[in-house]
Amino acid sequence: MTEERADIGVFGGSGFYSLLEDVREIKIETPFGPPSDLIALGNVEGKRIAFLPRHGRRHEYPPHTIPYKANIWAMKELGVTRIIAPSAVGSLQTHVKPGDFMVCDQFVDRTSGRGDTFYNGPITTHISAAEPFCAELRELAVSIIRKQGLPVHDGGTTVVIQGPRFSTKAESKWFTSMGWGIINMTQYPEVILALEQEMCYVNIALVTDYDAGLVGAEGARPVTAEEVEKMFISNIERVKGVIFDMIERTPLKRACACSQILRHARLS
Do the beta carbons of residue 53 and residue 178 sit within 8 Å? Predict the structure, then answer.
């Protein structure tokens, strides 16, 4: 068990390293293998932060191979109780535009074969996923994004696809017809694994493109990885500003239900 400690964990890309002061990198071993990369520890406004690029610093882990359980376990080992998880997403609705933020309150899982639970027995554990994202952190994130004058959608559903390919037009049109707001490849099982460890989790999604089913609407074209990266990089300072304010204003004492999720999850 490591003697290092952190208050808040951040999953993101290498562009977020500049958020931290007095950075040192540590290696943490987990029962599920190594995390995606070394964990960077630093300070932000007097709080100890643990930062981990979920894809690895060279983006060597595609979404379906990310060691999600190792990543969450490593954060838990450090004592992290709250996770802020920015991500790039595609829009499934014309009113959700590239450059907008969305702070989702629901997800739909369309992945397969991912290790998505810490509880494979012998203790049977059924956590409630009715409200998978921390309500307290969601409210804070939305208020911060609005205060910064940025377009934000309060709530919405993200559909998580397996990847690494993007959706077909038929799949995308189906997702749109269901009323789901955005699409990405990493929110599941990341959010559920965090909840299983009674950690608060919030996703701050930046819309980078319209998904394939909206081709022709709003001048949209089929999404490419190059365009997603270009859009995300062009907005990186806005995302970092939101994350920094989140860290500064996140209370360390929790008033949400996340810390007690296991209380009613186990069969006697």
Answer: no
